[in-house]
Fold this protein.
Amino acid sequence: MRGCHIRSKKLLLPVFSFYSHHQFRVHQRKHQESLFLVFVSIFSKEEMLAVFDKSVAKSPDALNSPDNHQELSALKNGFLANHFATLYPGSVTISLGSSGVMAYSLEKQNPLLPRLFVVVDDIFCLFQGHIENIAVLKQQYGLNKTANEGIIVIEAYRTLRDRGPYPPDQVIRDIQGKFAFIIYDSSSKATFIASDADGSVPFFWGIDAEGNLVLADDVKTVKKGCGKSFAPFPKGCFFTSSGGLKSYEHPLNELKAMPRVDSSGQVCGATFSVDVDAKKESSGMKKIGSAANWSTNY
């Protein structure tokens, strides 16, 4: 596979098996001796989709439209992934087991906002857009010259998760450019999702009939899985499994949800904006050992 790099390390080995519609599933296999760490980086452009089980990513209640009569589950029997594969016959579907599914296609790409699918260790990333200060971030995270945007945001996430008390809002503010990305960490069953401050990349999210989170850059795909319970992903915000939705532009302010009304006057999900009058209580920096997972505090 193009862009595939392998190096030896004592870790769990992701084993990829391809199925019909170019599906591949991730299996964890332990070895007592040195294991191979597989880096998969596909430098291509595609439509993207992610569906996460509600146990992995709990959607904001405000996304659920009271007038929604959608009774389908996006995950049951692979409903939305199969629909995606039908729309894009050359698409790739990645099963995340009980946690959900990710998918991408090589069709209908936007040359101004290229998309990447990258896997490093047990971390999966769908990235769309471009980073303007890519050279600065490569140096900041100690990456080589061939590292692309997907690898950079994965390394930013790993830095947040493993190595220090870096506020996630600062980590994302350091990324300059037009982007939207979806990260899934299979080792901790955690998600990390963000969009740039201007909402430059088309990016939507919604909640299906069973409370599962659906994300895609195609509004029709989200509507197929969520009915009326969807909205554009809030610009300048990030979402984590542990902390929910927050603003990285105004990290000290709460977010407020407002019902979103479409052109026909029907309520369709909700939009989220910074509440300038509601400040979060600050308890100062928590003193936690260096081995702790800092991302669970946000």
Remarks:
- Residues 149-163 form the longest helix (15 residues).
